[in-house]
Protein backbone atom coordinates (compact mmCIF):
# COMPACT_ATOMS: atom_id res chain seq x y z
CA UNK A 1 0.00 0.00 0.00
CA UNK A 2 1.32 3.40 -1.00
CA UNK A 3 0.31 6.79 0.35
CA UNK A 4 -1.23 7.64 -3.02
CA UNK A 5 -3.74 4.80 -2.46
CA UNK A 6 -4.92 6.03 0.95
CA UNK A 7 -8.15 8.05 0.98
CA UNK A 8 -10.37 9.64 3.59
CA UNK A 9 -14.04 8.73 3.50
CA UNK A 10 -15.72 12.13 3.81
CA UNK A 11 -18.54 10.62 5.87
CA UNK A 12 -16.04 10.87 8.72
CA UNK A 13 -16.25 14.68 8.50
CA UNK A 14 -19.89 14.89 7.39
CA UNK A 15 -20.69 17.67 9.86
CA UNK A 16 -18.36 19.91 7.84
CA UNK A 17 -20.00 19.36 4.44
CA UNK A 18 -23.14 21.48 4.74
CA UNK A 19 -22.34 24.19 2.17
CA UNK A 20 -20.01 24.56 -0.84
CA UNK A 21 -17.73 26.75 1.28
CA UNK A 22 -17.68 24.05 3.99
CA UNK A 23 -16.83 21.40 1.41
CA UNK A 24 -14.00 23.46 -0.06
CA UNK A 25 -12.54 24.10 3.40
CA UNK A 26 -12.86 20.44 4.35
CA UNK A 27 -11.06 19.28 1.23
CA UNK A 28 -8.25 21.74 1.84
CA UNK A 29 -7.94 20.55 5.44
CA UNK A 30 -7.98 16.90 4.34
CA UNK A 31 -5.15 17.57 1.90
CA UNK A 32 -3.20 19.50 4.54
CA UNK A 33 -3.40 16.49 6.88
CA UNK A 34 -1.67 14.48 4.15
CA UNK A 35 -4.39 12.53 2.38
CA UNK A 36 -4.06 12.24 -1.38
CA UNK A 37 -7.60 11.06 -2.14
CA UNK A 38 -11.17 11.10 -0.85
CA UNK A 39 -14.32 9.07 -1.11
CA UNK A 40 -17.34 11.32 -1.46
CA UNK A 41 -20.15 10.53 0.96
CA UNK A 42 -22.08 12.53 3.52
CA UNK A 43 -22.65 15.49 1.20
CA UNK A 44 -26.35 16.48 1.35
CA UNK A 45 -28.24 16.18 -1.94
CA UNK A 46 -28.59 19.41 -3.86
CA UNK A 47 -25.92 21.34 -1.97
CA UNK A 48 -23.28 21.21 -4.70
CA UNK A 49 -23.06 19.86 -8.24
CA UNK A 50 -20.82 16.93 -9.20
CA UNK A 51 -18.80 19.26 -11.45
CA UNK A 52 -18.18 21.61 -8.52
CA UNK A 53 -17.08 18.74 -6.27
CA UNK A 54 -14.72 17.54 -8.99
CA UNK A 55 -13.25 21.03 -9.37
CA UNK A 56 -12.78 21.49 -5.62
CA UNK A 57 -11.01 18.14 -5.34
CA UNK A 58 -8.70 19.17 -8.17
CA UNK A 59 -7.97 22.50 -6.47
CA UNK A 60 -6.82 20.60 -3.37
CA UNK A 61 -4.90 18.01 -5.45
CA UNK A 62 -7.15 15.23 -4.18
CA UNK A 63 -8.14 12.24 -6.27
CA UNK A 64 -11.84 11.48 -6.07
CA UNK A 65 -11.45 7.72 -5.85
CA UNK A 66 -14.99 6.54 -5.12
CA UNK A 67 -18.43 7.54 -3.87
CA UNK A 68 -21.36 6.21 -1.95
CA UNK A 69 -24.62 6.72 -3.81
CA UNK A 70 -28.08 6.28 -2.27
CA UNK A 71 -29.10 2.63 -2.39
CA UNK A 72 -32.51 3.42 -3.85
CA UNK A 73 -30.87 5.33 -6.69
CA UNK A 74 -28.41 2.53 -7.40
CA UNK A 75 -31.17 -0.05 -7.59
CA UNK A 76 -33.85 2.13 -9.17
CA UNK A 77 -31.95 4.39 -11.56
CA UNK A 78 -28.43 3.11 -12.25
CA UNK A 79 -28.24 5.28 -15.39
CA UNK A 80 -28.41 8.35 -13.14
CA UNK A 81 -25.54 6.95 -11.08
CA UNK A 82 -23.51 6.50 -14.26
CA UNK A 83 -24.21 10.10 -15.22
CA UNK A 84 -23.15 11.38 -11.79
CA UNK A 85 -19.96 9.32 -11.75
CA UNK A 86 -19.05 10.62 -15.19
CA UNK A 87 -19.50 14.18 -13.98
CA UNK A 88 -17.26 13.40 -11.02
CA UNK A 89 -14.70 11.57 -13.21
CA UNK A 90 -14.96 8.63 -10.83
CA UNK A 91 -15.03 4.93 -11.66
CA UNK A 92 -16.10 3.38 -8.34
CA UNK A 93 -19.17 3.60 -6.17
CA UNK A 94 -20.72 1.47 -3.45
CA UNK A 95 -24.17 0.40 -2.40
CA UNK A 96 -23.93 1.84 1.10
CA UNK A 97 -26.58 0.25 3.29
CA UNK A 98 -29.42 -2.27 2.87
CA UNK A 99 -32.18 0.15 3.88
CA UNK A 100 -35.65 -1.35 3.66
CA UNK A 101 -34.37 -4.91 3.18
CA UNK A 102 -36.18 -7.50 5.29
CA UNK A 103 -33.54 -10.09 6.09
CA UNK A 104 -36.24 -12.51 7.21
CA UNK A 105 -37.88 -12.38 3.80
CA UNK A 106 -36.44 -14.50 1.01
CA UNK A 107 -38.26 -12.34 -1.52
CA UNK A 108 -36.69 -9.16 -0.14
CA UNK A 109 -33.18 -10.63 0.02
CA UNK A 110 -33.42 -12.17 -3.44
CA UNK A 111 -34.69 -8.87 -4.80
CA UNK A 112 -31.71 -7.02 -3.36
CA UNK A 113 -29.26 -9.49 -4.87
CA UNK A 114 -30.98 -9.43 -8.24
CA UNK A 115 -31.10 -5.63 -8.20
CA UNK A 116 -27.42 -5.32 -7.34
CA UNK A 117 -26.49 -7.59 -10.22
CA UNK A 118 -28.70 -5.74 -12.70
CA UNK A 119 -27.47 -2.31 -11.64
CA UNK A 120 -23.88 -3.52 -11.56
CA UNK A 121 -24.26 -4.61 -15.17
CA UNK A 122 -25.35 -1.10 -16.18
CA UNK A 123 -22.32 0.42 -14.45
CA UNK A 124 -19.95 -2.19 -15.86
CA UNK A 125 -21.15 -1.52 -19.39
CA UNK A 126 -20.28 2.16 -18.78
CA UNK A 127 -16.78 1.23 -17.59
CA UNK A 128 -17.58 1.72 -13.91
CA UNK A 129 -17.66 -0.57 -10.89
CA UNK A 130 -20.39 -1.14 -8.34
CA UNK A 131 -19.19 -2.42 -4.99
CA UNK A 132 -21.09 -3.55 -1.92
CA UNK A 133 -20.40 -1.93 1.46
CA UNK A 134 -21.20 -4.29 4.31
CA UNK A 135 -22.36 -3.65 7.83
CA UNK A 136 -22.96 -6.27 10.52
CA UNK A 137 -26.45 -7.11 9.25
CA UNK A 138 -25.10 -9.19 6.39
CA UNK A 139 -23.52 -11.66 8.81
CA UNK A 140 -26.86 -13.04 9.89
CA UNK A 141 -27.06 -16.65 8.76
CA UNK A 142 -29.91 -18.28 6.91
CA UNK A 143 -29.70 -21.92 5.91
CA UNK A 144 -26.11 -21.96 7.09
CA UNK A 145 -24.97 -19.04 4.93
CA UNK A 146 -24.50 -15.37 5.67
CA UNK A 147 -26.20 -12.79 3.49
CA UNK A 148 -22.79 -11.44 2.51
CA UNK A 149 -21.79 -14.88 1.23
CA UNK A 150 -25.01 -14.99 -0.78
CA UNK A 151 -24.48 -11.55 -2.27
CA UNK A 152 -21.09 -12.50 -3.68
CA UNK A 153 -22.11 -16.03 -4.64
CA UNK A 154 -25.24 -14.97 -6.50
CA UNK A 155 -23.94 -11.92 -8.35
CA UNK A 156 -21.49 -11.76 -11.24
CA UNK A 157 -17.95 -10.75 -10.21
CA UNK A 158 -17.82 -8.36 -13.14
CA UNK A 159 -20.98 -6.63 -11.94
CA UNK A 160 -20.71 -6.56 -8.13
CA UNK A 161 -17.42 -6.24 -6.31
CA UNK A 162 -16.46 -5.61 -2.71
CA UNK A 163 -15.93 -2.67 -0.39
CA UNK A 164 -15.19 -4.61 2.78
CA UNK A 165 -15.63 -2.57 5.97
CA UNK A 166 -13.25 -3.99 8.57
CA UNK A 167 -15.11 -2.69 11.63
CA UNK A 168 -18.48 -4.07 10.60
CA UNK A 169 -17.01 -7.44 9.64
CA UNK A 170 -15.54 -7.70 13.14
CA UNK A 171 -18.77 -6.45 14.74
CA UNK A 172 -20.77 -9.03 12.81
CA UNK A 173 -18.55 -11.87 13.99
CA UNK A 174 -16.50 -12.29 10.84
CA UNK A 175 -12.77 -12.18 10.18
CA UNK A 176 -11.61 -9.09 8.23
CA UNK A 177 -8.45 -10.82 7.00
CA UNK A 178 -10.38 -13.86 5.79
CA UNK A 179 -12.92 -11.69 3.98
CA UNK A 180 -10.18 -9.76 2.21
CA UNK A 181 -8.73 -13.06 1.03
CA UNK A 182 -12.12 -14.45 0.09
CA UNK A 183 -12.69 -11.59 -2.35
CA UNK A 184 -9.48 -12.13 -4.32
CA UNK A 185 -9.81 -10.29 -7.61
CA UNK A 186 -13.02 -8.70 -6.40
CA UNK A 187 -11.91 -6.15 -3.79
CA UNK A 188 -11.05 -2.78 -5.34
CA UNK A 189 -12.02 -0.82 -2.21
CA UNK A 190 -11.35 -1.37 1.50
CA UNK A 191 -12.82 0.61 4.38
CA UNK A 192 -10.14 0.81 7.03
CA UNK A 193 -12.00 1.23 10.28
CA UNK A 194 -10.64 0.10 13.63
CA UNK A 195 -12.63 -1.66 16.36
CA UNK A 196 -12.21 -1.40 20.12
CA UNK A 197 -14.13 -2.23 23.28
CA UNK A 198 -14.85 0.43 25.89
CA UNK A 199 -14.32 0.20 29.64
CA UNK A 200 -17.91 -0.99 29.98
CA UNK A 201 -17.28 -3.70 27.36
CA UNK A 202 -19.15 -2.10 24.47
CA UNK A 203 -17.88 -1.97 20.88
CA UNK A 204 -16.67 1.40 19.63
CA UNK A 205 -14.93 2.97 16.65
CA UNK A 206 -11.26 3.80 16.96
CA UNK A 207 -8.50 5.51 15.02
CA UNK A 208 -6.42 3.14 12.91
CA UNK A 209 -3.86 1.44 15.14
CA UNK A 210 -5.65 2.32 18.36
CA UNK A 211 -8.12 -0.56 18.27
CA UNK A 212 -7.95 -4.34 18.16
CA UNK A 213 -7.74 -5.11 14.44
CA UNK A 214 -4.58 -6.54 12.87
CA UNK A 215 -4.11 -3.99 10.11
CA UNK A 216 -0.76 -5.26 8.83
CA UNK A 217 -2.43 -8.62 8.13
CA UNK A 218 -5.56 -6.94 6.73
CA UNK A 219 -3.54 -4.78 4.33
CA UNK A 220 -1.43 -7.73 3.21
CA UNK A 221 -4.57 -9.76 2.47
CA UNK A 222 -6.29 -6.86 0.70
CA UNK A 223 -3.25 -6.15 -1.46
CA UNK A 224 -3.01 -9.79 -2.44
CA UNK A 225 -6.66 -9.58 -3.52
CA UNK A 226 -5.93 -6.61 -5.78
CA UNK A 227 -7.24 -3.75 -3.62
CA UNK A 228 -6.74 -0.36 -5.26
CA UNK A 229 -7.99 2.10 -2.63
CA UNK A 230 -7.55 1.94 1.14
CA UNK A 231 -10.15 4.27 2.59
CA UNK A 232 -10.01 5.52 6.19
CA UNK A 233 -13.38 5.97 7.84
CA UNK A 234 -14.47 6.56 11.42
CA UNK A 235 -18.22 6.80 11.95
CA UNK A 236 -17.93 8.33 15.43
CA UNK A 237 -14.89 10.21 16.72
CA UNK A 238 -14.10 11.10 20.34
CA UNK A 239 -13.45 14.73 19.44
CA UNK A 240 -12.56 16.65 16.30
CA UNK A 241 -12.91 14.19 13.39
CA UNK A 242 -10.02 15.88 11.58
CA UNK A 243 -7.81 15.01 14.55
CA UNK A 244 -8.94 11.39 14.34
CA UNK A 245 -8.27 11.35 10.59
CA UNK A 246 -4.79 12.73 11.22
CA UNK A 247 -4.04 10.14 13.90
CA UNK A 248 -5.12 7.35 11.59
CA UNK A 249 -2.95 8.63 8.76
CA UNK A 250 0.01 9.04 11.11
CA UNK A 251 -0.24 5.37 12.11
CA UNK A 252 -0.62 4.31 8.49
CA UNK A 253 2.47 6.30 7.50
CA UNK A 254 4.58 4.81 10.27
CA UNK A 255 3.43 1.20 10.13
CA UNK A 256 1.55 0.21 6.97
CA UNK A 257 2.99 1.88 3.89
CA UNK A 258 5.22 -0.04 1.53
Give a brief outline of the structure.
The chain has helices at residues 20-33, 50-59, 71-76, 78-88, 106-125, 147-153, 166-172, 176-182, 215-224, 241-255; strands at residues 6-9, 37-40, 63-68, 92-95, 129-133, 141-142, 145-146, 160-165, 189-192, 194-197, 203-206, 229-232. With 258 residues, the protein is an alpha/beta fold.
Secondary-structure map:
Elements: E1 6-9, H1 20-33, E2 37-40, H2 50-59, E3 63-68, H3 71-76, H4 78-88, E4 92-95, H5 106-125, E5 129-133, E6 141-142, E7 145-146, H6 147-153, E8 160-165, H7 166-172, H8 176-182, E9 189-192, E10 194-197, E11 203-206, H9 215-224, E12 229-232, H10 241-255
Parallel strand pairs: 1-2, 1-12, 2-3, 3-4, 4-5, 5-8, 8-9, 9-12
Antiparallel strand pairs: 6-7, 10-11
Helix pairs in contact: 1-2, 2-4, 4-5, 8-9
What does this structure look like?
With 258 residues, the protein is α/β, with parallel strands linked by helices. The protein contains 10 helices and 12 strands. An 8-stranded parallel β-barrel has the order 1-2-3-4-5-8-9-12, surrounded by 7 helices. A two-stranded antiparallel sheet has the order 6-7. α1 (20-33) links the parallel β1 and β2 (37-40). The N and C termini lie close together (5 Å).
Q: Helix fraction?
A: 40-55%
Per DSSP E runs of 2 or more residues, the count of β-strands stands at 12
Q: Helices and strands, in N-to-C order?
A: EHEHEHHEHEEEHEHHEEEHEH
Strand content: 15-25%
Overall form: globular
Strands in their spatial order, largest beta sheet: 1-2-3-4-5-8-9-12
Give the terminus-to-terminus CA distance: 5 Å
Low-confidence stretches: none
Q: Which structural class do the helices and strands define?
A: alpha/beta
Reported for the largest beta sheet, the result is: 8 strands, parallel, barrel
Counting H and I runs of at least 4 residues, what is the number of helices? 10
Please state the average pLDDT score. Answer: 97
Radius of gyration: 17 Å
Amino acid sequence: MKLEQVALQLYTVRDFLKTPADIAATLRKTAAIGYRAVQVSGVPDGVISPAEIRALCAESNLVLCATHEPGARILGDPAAVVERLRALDCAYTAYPYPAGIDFDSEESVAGLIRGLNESGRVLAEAGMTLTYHNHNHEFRKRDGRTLLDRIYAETEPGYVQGEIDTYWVQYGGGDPVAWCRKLAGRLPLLHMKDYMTTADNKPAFAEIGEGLLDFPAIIEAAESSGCQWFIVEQDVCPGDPFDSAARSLDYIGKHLLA
